Amino acid sequence: MSAATTAAGGDGPVPPPRSPVPDTAAGPTIDGTGPASPAGVDGVDWPAGVPVAEPVEPIVADVEPGRVRWDPAERRARASQSFWTAAVGVPAIFSVLRLGVEAGGELQTTLLLVANVGPVNLLAGFLTTAARLLSTGLVAVFALGAVLAVSADRLPPGTRRRPLFARWADITPAWVVLASFLLALITWPLLYLPLLLPAFVAAFQLRSARLHERVVPRLLIIVALLAGYGWLMLPTLREAVQQGGEELVLALIVVPPLLALFIAGPLPGVVIRPLASVTEVAVLATLIWAAVPVISTPVLPLTVTTVGEENGPTEDVRGHVVTTDDVNMVILQEQGGVRYVPVGLVRAQVLCPSEEELPRHQLRIHDFHVEDSLLEGMGRRVRPVHRIDATCRTPG
Amino acid sequence: MNSGSSQSRLRSVASTLAVALTLTLAAAAGCDSRQEPELSSVQEKMRETHIYGQSKLRIGVATNEPLMGELRNGQHVGFDVEIAKYIAASLGYEGDQRLEFVPVATEERIPALQGGTVDLVVSSFSITEERKKVVSFAGPYFVTTQEVMVPTRLRGKISTIEDLRNPDYKICTSGGSTSEAELGGHQVKVLVVKTVGDCVAGIRAGRYDAVSSDETILAGFLARHPKEFEIVDMPFGTSELLGIGVPIGDPALRDLVAFFLQKSYQQGRDEQASPWQTSYNRTLGPWLKAEKRQPQPLEVPKLVDFDDKAPAK
Fold first, then answer.
1. Vertex A149, ends A143 and A152: CA angle to 5°?
2. Please, what are the domains in chain A?
3. N- to C-terminal Cα distance for chain A?
4. Are B22 and A198 a contacting pair at CB < 8 A?
5. What is the CATH number of domain B145-232?
6. I need a labelling partner for A85 at 20 to 30 A (CA). Which of A150, A211, B13, B282 fits?
7. Which residues of B touch A391 (CB under 8 A)?
8. Residues paired with residue A321 on neighbouring β-strands, in sequence order
9. Residue B103: beta bridge partners?
10. Helix (H) or strand (E) holding B261
11. For chain B, where are the E strands, in sequence order?
């Protein structure tokens, strides 16, 4: 916890440490000096120990006098309540929805799955596949929120309501933000991890000025950091250049660390509103777009079961084993439909990978495949040899 | 003040650009993660082959070439058979239920592939330009040379091509073989019979004095009669590349076979026990004079497979 506070830049024990803006926001907008006031920029540095809600309150009251004035403590309580509701409810609903998709939309099959897949398994299965999506959403919201929050004082007069993401970022405790970044760090494919760098810098408003107060040492530190990154990535970059046609990979590796130097904001007043609206829609759309594969990812592992009498002809049944009892093995076939196979007829069974797991790039970062997450990469080191049983290659 | 203002404006423009670029990159990354792999996968190739969905794979093998392809007590054994089993297993056909060995004689290999009675031929099939016009080859999986085998009674007497030209010795070889052409090129008069087995039988009966053929075939007969024969190392210039025959109309299957040969080749190169090396050690290895390694297969396509992400070391 204390680490989280430090990482949040906490120059003090201010309860919402990541909202440096309101004090400066109040000044220019009230006295009408306009959004581009340099005073506001200079004041952005980092919060003095001013309570957050105090100066903001009059603004809200000013714009929407009919609204109930909010109390920060109450608001935080409400936010925490909705956070936990969402944290528990969304995976639960998604998991049940997934069962329906997994069952091929058949009611009876869905019921069979519901009867046999335990809630813990379901939730664990969901988290395995959705952790990446979840962390992406959170990281995007917190990074954008922090940048928008620090720029909010430059909003044109009249539009004083702070952007949604900025408000979310304000009320989120630093440890939640840090946890989202950690989750992203271990679940994102290595190739996309460089993007986490500008996002992290933005979310925690780490300006280069914080590295060192003097310019020359500051530059030296930056150069050293970039050189270290370059050393880490150079073999991969060379390989990508050799392979050709990997421009996106090159951009994804080279550009983000440079962007991280400038991303902390603040943004000019004119772009805040459009950026806020566009990113809100974009994040929502992305989440929906990315949720589709999560919903359709199978809950149960894919297997091929060889079925047949002793010494007789055999048949391969490709599908997901729902349950096995003394009499039958219940297999949800890949092509749809449920098959009850008498246990005595089961000759062999193998676990198969699904085609979504095929890599798109042939690149590695120090022998870690770029499409593996850190977790997966470490897993492959624990169990390095992975043989695909050839039975998986034949159609079921 | 003025410079501070312009600096801050510059800074905010840079921030805007940085945010926009990061978002663009993130969007590009998101799209990229949903794309299909550019290279085709083993699975896709499988679907293109004519064997996809077939319950059994039929592979043509020889039954009369000891060490390479032989029928012993109703079981197909030999180096070719082992290679065929490896390829079949890699394609998803493992065990007697799924894999059928079809005996093919030397001259039946091409018609069997053309007529569709077999899906693959693994039977000391040398890759030649002439044959490439009618069948496809994956490989080579073995490099062999022409050798001469003499009975022990002539040990030391026949040791050069010059000795073969000696009209006192009757040299035998099989018809239509590379040896026949090779010996003809060296002005060696040969007696041509149907199979190498006939030559060997002829030598044992005293009708011929030496037999020339592929070193693998000769090694097979040497293994059968180890006390009666000896292989003489002759400086014939040509080497033969043995390949796996695939119907010419099925390039996907050819690519897959080449891909799996390459997989074995790479395993062997990484000092692991490759399927090829195991097959070789179990069959030909003890009978050939020189140590052999799996040759690098040619024209291997790049395919994506599930184990691509496994650590290289």
1. 140
2. 74-207+264-295 (no CATH), 302-393 (2.30.30)
3. 52
4. yes
5. 3.40.190.10
6. A150
7. 92, 94
8. A331
9. B61
10. helix B251-269
11. 57-61, 64-65, 69-72, 75-77, 99-103, 120-126, 135-151, 171-174, 190-193, 210-214, 229-232, 239-247
Over residues A309-325, the pLDDT tens digits come to 877 777 888 888 888 88
Is the pLDDT reported for residue A291 higher than 60?
Answer: yes
Name which CATH class applies to B42-144+241-291: alpha beta
This model of the complex carries an ipTM of 0.72
Q: Is there a contact between B246 and B277 (Cβ–Cβ < 8 Å)?
A: no
Mean pLDDT of B275-295: 78
> CB within 8 A of A269, min separation 6: which ones?
A35, A36, A151, A154, A155, A156
- What SS3 class is residue A321? strand
- All CATH 3.40.190.10 domain ranges in chain B, comma separated: 42-144+241-291, 145-232
Per the omega criterion (within 30 degrees of 0), is the bond before B286 cis?
A: no
Residue A179 in this model has a pLDDT that exceeds 90:
yes
A46-97 pLDDT, tens digit each = 444 444 444 444 444 444 444 555 677 787 788 778 877 877 787 778 777 7
Dihedrals phi, psi of B184, to nearest 5 degrees: -60, -40
Whether the Cβ atoms of residue B236 and residue B146 lie closer than 8 Å to each other: yes
- Percent of chain A at pLDDT > 70 equals 80
CB neighbours (10 Å) of residue B208?
A: 23
Tokens of B309: 């992400």
Q: What is the mean pLDDT of chain A?
A: 76
Q: How far is CA A356 from CA A70, A190, A376, A379, B33, in A?
A: 48, 17, 15, 18, 10
In total, the C-beta contacts within 8 angstroms joining chain A to chain B are 155
Given this model, what pLDDT does residue A183 score? 92
Lowest mean pLDDT among A61-70, A252-261, B69-78, B89-98: A61-70
Are residues A36 and B9, on separate chains, in Cβ contact within 8 Å? yes
Residues 6+ apart with CB under 8 A from B199: B172, B173, B174, B193, B208, B211, B213
Cβ neighbour number for residue B188 with a 10 Å cutoff: 22
Nearest residue on chain A to B16, alpha-carbon basis: A267
pLDDT at A60: 44
CA angle, residues B143, B146, B147, in degrees to nearest 5: 120
Range list of β-strands (E), A251-358: 302-308, 314-324, 328-333, 338-342, 346-351
Partner-chain contact B9 A282, CB within 8 Å? no
Asked if B22 lies within 8 A of A199 by C-beta distance, the reply is yes
pLDDT (0 to 100) of residue A134:
85
| CB-based contacts of B98-103 (< 8 A; 24+ apart in sequence) | B98/B55, B98/B56, B98/B57, B99/B56, B99/B57, B99/B59, B100/B56, B100/B57, B100/B58, B100/B59, B101/B58, B101/B59, B101/B60, B101/B61, B101/B76, B102/B58, B102/B59, B102/B60, B102/B61, B103/B60, B103/B61, B103/B62, B103/B63, B103/B71
pTM, two decimals, is 0.72
Cβ–Cβ of A388/B305 closer than 8 Å?
A: yes
